[in-house]
Fold this sequence. Notes:
The structure holds two protein chains of two kinds. Chain A is mainly beta. Helices cover about 0% and strands about 45% of the residues of chain A. Chain A has no helices and nine strands. Chain A has strands at about 10, 20-25, 35, 45, 60-65, 70-75, 85-90, 95-100, 105. Chain A is globular and about 40 Å long. Chain B is mostly beta strands. Chain B contains no helices and eleven strands. Chain B has strands spanning about 5, 10, 20-25, 35-40, 45-50, 60, 70-75, 80-85, 90-100, 105-110, 110-115. In chain B, the strands form two sheets. In chain B, strands 2, 4, 5, 6, 9, 10 and 11 form a seven-stranded mixed β-sheet that branches. Chain B has a four-stranded antiparallel β-sheet with strand order 1-3-8-7, with no helix packed on it. Chain B is globular. The N and C termini of chain B lie far apart (about 40 Å).
Amino acid sequence: SYVLTQPPSVSVAPGQTATITCGGNNIGRKSVHWYQQKTGQAPVLVVYDDSDRPSGIPERFSGSKSGNTATLTISRVEAGDEADYFCQVWDSSSAHQVFGGGTKLTVL
Amino acid sequence: EVQLVESGGGLVQPGGSLRLSCAASGFTFSVNYMYWVRQAPGKGLEWVSCINADSNIIYYADSVKGRFTISRDNARSSLYLQMNSLRAEDTALYYCAKGSGGWQMEKWGQGTLVTVSS
C-alpha cells in the first residue's frame, strides 16, 4: 500500500518559516493536499493540488513539490499556526485515500 | 455556509453495530463526493470510505471492507455509515467530509465519537 512519510514534529520561532515535508514514492505524479488540525478541532484544508490555497487561507501558507517530496511552507509563523499538519493523496492504483502520519508544529 | 453535522456515535460492545449519519447543508449535496475519515484518540487521520454523487462508485479502506457500508440520500442531503462487527480498534472520532472537483476534502464536520468496548 502507498505510504506518505512526515516528520513527527517541527519547531519554529514566531516570525520564522516552517517547512513540513511529505515523502512518497512517485509523489510527483499525484496531487498533494494539506490539512491543519488544531487541538480539539476538525481538520481544515490549507493547500490543495500541491500549491493552491482555498479561499480564506492566508498567503503565508504555500505548497510545493520536488522529486519524491512535497512541502508545506508556513511563512512568518504565528502562535495560532501551532497545530498538527497532515498531507494526503489519492492513490489510484489501490483506489485509496492516503494520509501521512502527521506533523506537530510547535511555535516556540 | 457549508455545514456538516455528524450523529449516531456512542458506546457499543465488540461485535455490535452502529449507524452514523451526516446532515449536510449550504451546498448542492447531490454533486459531490463524500467521505468518512476517522481519528483514533491521540492518533492521525485514517480514511474510511468514500462515495460518489450517484452512489455507483464506492471505495473502502482495507481495515473496514466487508464490515462497513457507506450510503447517501441526496434527497435528504445526508450521508451514512453502517458499521457492523465492530472491534475495539474501530474506536475513533468519525468525521464526515465534503469532496470537491479533485480528491481533496474541502470541508469537515466536527465528528461523532464511536467507542467499542465491553
